[in-house]
Amino acid sequence: MSIYQDKAKECKCCGKHVPLPTTLKEYNGTMLCPTTFSNVVEYKRIWKAAGSRPPGSTRKHFSDYVQQLVEATINQEE
Ligand SMILES: [Zn+2]
């Protein structure tokens, strides 16, 4: 078990896929791989710009996990 394998386990989306992330970022107390982190930031930006939950045609580009993370922070802000 390499340090990268150990680290990757902290991101719920990528326990197994290759290549593993070599760095993780924290978002709202959750450790995320850079891909998921970027998607969260982008999804939240779209949500804020729209002022409400983006339509299905936009949501389909983001995983359920990403949507769930963003919705949790939106709910906290309200
Ligand atoms: Zn990941």
Summarize the structure in words.
- The chain has 78 residues and is mainly alpha-helical.
- It has one domain.
- It is 53% helix and 8% strand.
- The protein has helices at residues 3-8, 34-50, 56-59, 64-77; strands spanning 25-27, 30-32.
- The chain has a two-stranded antiparallel ribbon.
- Helix 2 (34-50) crosses helix 4.
- The longest helix is centred in the middle third of the chain and has 17 residues, at 34-50.
- The radius of gyration is 13 Å and the shape is elongated.
- It starts with a helix and ends with a helix.
- The mean pLDDT is 89.
Determine the structural class based on helices, strands and strand pairing: mainly alpha
The shape is elongated
Strand content: 5-15%
Helix content: 40-55%
| Helical segment count | 4
First-last Cα distance: 42 Å
**Chain-averaged pLDDT:** 89
Domain tally = 1
The distinct bound ligands, ions and cofactors come out as:
zinc ion
Q: Regions with pLDDT < 50 over 5+ consecutive residues?
A: none
Strand count, sense and closure of the main sheet? 2 strands, antiparallel
Q: What is the H-and-E element order?
A: HEEHHH
Strand arrangement, major sheet = 1-2
Cα radius of gyration in angstroms = 13 Å
Number of strands: 2
